[in-house]
Amino acid sequence: MRMDRIDAIVTALDSHIGHQVEYCERHRDAGDAYVHLPRESGFAWGEGAARLAAWVEAEGIDDRGLDASRLAGIALDHFRMVSGSIHATSPEEGFCIDRFPVGEIEIQVRREAFDAEATLEEWEEAKRRAAAVFRADLGYVISDRVWRAMIDADKLREEIRLAAHPELEPELDF
Asked: Which of 110, 52, 45, 106 is nearest to 79 (CA)?
């Protein structure tokens, strides 16, 4: 019975950990927590505007005479957060403004939420066997995922068109 209880707690812990990791790595709400970073990160103080201008030229996007600073402002105002691997950015996704590793995911657990009748010894054994490393009731998982701030060529073209001609209405796709 004791091992059955520990196995059940490990299964419940691993399920909870899996859901938390999935949320942090892939759920749009989690990605939205990073949206302030592109303006505060390497894009703003690094070569972001120059990289963007080179990409615009390579993609054959008509910049309509807007300078690199204005193009950067458009990109920073209209990007979307995309979950992906830390190892690669797919070129068809568009221009990568910046990327932010998920890194360490912290997960808080309480024995009472998983098995209130489990002994402290059973709880500790279950945490040792679970898919996270625990310190007290905080579990840690390392992630190799990133949130990337991306803008695709079509979105950038539309926003350049509107910036160059503010009297125009956005083109809506229904």
From this structure: 52
Within a domain: 68: yes
* Mean local confidence (pLDDT), 29-52: 87
Q: How far apart are CA 162 and CA 170, in angstroms?
A: 7
Antiparallel, parallel or unpaired: β 133-135 and 145-151: unpaired
Q: Which H or E run includes 99?
A: strand 95-101
**pTM of the predicted model as reported, rounded to 2 decimal places:** 0.83
Domain range for 36:
2-164
**pLDDT category of residue 2 using cuts at 50, 70 and 90:** confident
